Amino acid sequence: xxxxxxxxxxxxxxxxxxxxxxxxxxxxxxxxxxxxxxxxxxxxxxxxxxxxxxxxxxxxxxxxxxxxxxxxxxxxxxxxxxxxxxxxxxxxxxxxxxxxxxxxxxxxxxxxxxxxxxxxxxxxxxxxxxxxxxxxxxxxxxxxxxxxxxxxxxxxxxxxxxxxxxxxxxxxxxxxxxxxxxxxxxxxxxxxxxxxxxxxxxxxxxxxxxxxxxxxxxxxxxxxxxxxxxxxxxxxxxxxxxxxxxxxxxxxxxxxxxxxxxxxxxxxxxxxxxxxxxxxxxxxxxxxx
Length: 289
Known about the structure:
The chain is an alpha/beta fold.
């Protein structure tokens, strides 16, 4: 049996945002949080009514419709992820979208679960008409041969994956700087630590505001509640922690709506202060867009 298609629309001012789910992957807890005792992580999982042995990490990208243009923020796992992922295209089409109508793709950073949906394993490019825009700091890091050659063996695959996805279109990729409006209504904000060029996006229209948090946290039950914790995927743990606390403080103070790549679907809500950490307060599901 399958669920109904995983897409959910909401408005930010005049902009229509559609969350597209790409399934999930199970991550064993052992070694997952680098700076916390396993017993403490298990306790946090229990408090969130999550399984005791492995974290189900979900994947949710966004489609931004504004002024007749269709923009994606990240592309999911494609056919390169866990067997329980790879649902993106079915959900994207169920939401009424066609890959050929995508005008721009913004990438938050270059981890495989964000970029592999752009190019399938056989080399097929999925979005024939899309302009590709990437953070300049991210491009500078991952496309640097010296950094790839100096990387530990465990990271060589990630460097290879970036080249597989972007190599064939390298000359056409547009790089953007943080602080710039990259498409109408969407501004890139530097959020380094998870990766060197990791970027979040402020979506604004009229009085509507949404902060697309990308991978500022992994699952909010662990890392919104415990912002000092650092997931194994954070390349610079202390920098990622500082970025996380700064952004969570900001969106909490501003009462901004947020969207997270790895939060339970539809992966959007608000951030409330709670003790020394924060809570994600999910939006109420609504049939009205």
